[in-house]
Amino acid sequence: MSETMDELLVEHRGDVLWMTLNRAARRNALTVNLVEVIGDALVDADRGKTVRVAVLTGAGTAFCAGGDLPSLAAVAAGGPRAATDAIYSRFHRMVGVLGSVAFPVIAAINGPAMGAGLDLAMACDLRVSSSTAKFASSWINVGLVPGMGGAHLLTRAIGSTRAAEMVLLGRTVDAATAYSWGLVNSVVAPDALRGEVDSIAARLAAFSRPAVESSKASLRRAGSTPFDAELSALGAIQGGLLVGDDFRNVADAMTKSAR
Question: Which CATH class is domain 2-206?
């Protein structure tokens, strides 16, 4: 089942949600409306409890070329307060929602991920790239800071030295370099991208839902929670999983096979 919401195409394939940035003529540049719709779609999916995995990709030949500068300039014309409100209430909300939804989100990077597009990809849990994709934190070129947390997310993913090169110098890297740096999880041929992402999504959906959700949450806490506090949290989480049906079924099957 699919639904077009102007700038975003939403398609439910069983328990996997595909979201396609639908502004191919503008290389899927992010408008204020588009980021709001992405956030709403994720919140709705999380509330419905039927989605096990979400995928974010772009229409046409680009993943996302960044922020839509005319759209952002129109917001900025209202003054600093209006610009700040748009950033915090929509752009930052979307980034927060990508992390807070229970299910993992895969970025299927079908083409260039530039500026805000790179930040968007980095905010996802897994990144699968077409071999034709390229990546740049191009904010510096237009006199802006990576406004969706890109500097922070890049530093965590690829280290401070490489992140500084991308953020301060605006260096563009190809898919092979992105993979060798740890920016993406895998690189495949353009015509194999959808099949690869479908395979990963199916694998995630086959695992215990509570285990996947708890594992994502643990990964998200890694950047902000002291290790001792994380161990304390995991004790209670793991205790609940150990008495759950998913673990019990696996353990029972292994016990029977060992007899």
Answer: alpha beta
